[in-house]
Amino acid sequence: MSTAPTKLLTPQEYLARERPADFRSEFYRGEMFAMAGASWEHTLIKDNLAGEARNGLKDGPCRVLTSDLRVKVTATGLYTYPDIVVVCDEPQFEDSMFDTLLNPRVVVEVLSDSTEKYDRGTKFAHYRQMPSVREYVMVAQDCPRVERYVRQDDGTWVLTVFSDLEKTFAFGSIPVKVPLADIYRGVAFPETTKR
User: Fold this and answer.
1) Structural domains of the chain, with CATH
2) 25, 74, 105, 114: which could form a disulfide with 32 (CB 3.0–4.6 Å)?
3) Full-model pTM
4) What is the pLDDT of residues 3-13, one digit of tens each?
5) How many Å apart are CA 45 and CA 53, to the nearest integer?
6) Which pairs from 116-123 meet CB under 8 Å and 24+ separation?
7) 3-class secondary-structure state, position 150
């Protein structure tokens, strides 16, 4: 058994490994963390919501991007791949590769059993350190539930929960409303799951 310490990577070493890689990894405090593939339901929900948001924003300055674009939380050093981001200002990138975004306005994560605790806690704490982020949205995949946190002018975050398939989810910082039934189009919920 080896007791040799693991060599920590610099952000530059991470990016040199990550950019040509066949799979995506997050990076934090010198370590890379491989990301698991997404389930059918996760992908449907992400694509449904991204598509509806993109349609709602097509005539304005905002752009909707999905999980292939890396985001860096400059204040903490986290590199991550949110499920959906919305950028409304001129996009700012870490370097001339234009593949690491620094200024999303909206961040959306679709929750799964393996990531829910992280997305609700540690990851949200990182996102709150980004001055550009005005809104954080978490979408359940095992029941109809969308949680929207919107940053107020005083820096506090206000939570609104949408959990009825007959109702409409409204973003708080961009002019888009999406019926929950459209977000969950094609998703079969487990019958035993209730929240």
Assistant:
1) 39-183 (3.90.1570.10)
2) 25
3) 0.93
4) 666 789 999 99
5) 12
6) 123/78, 123/80
7) strand
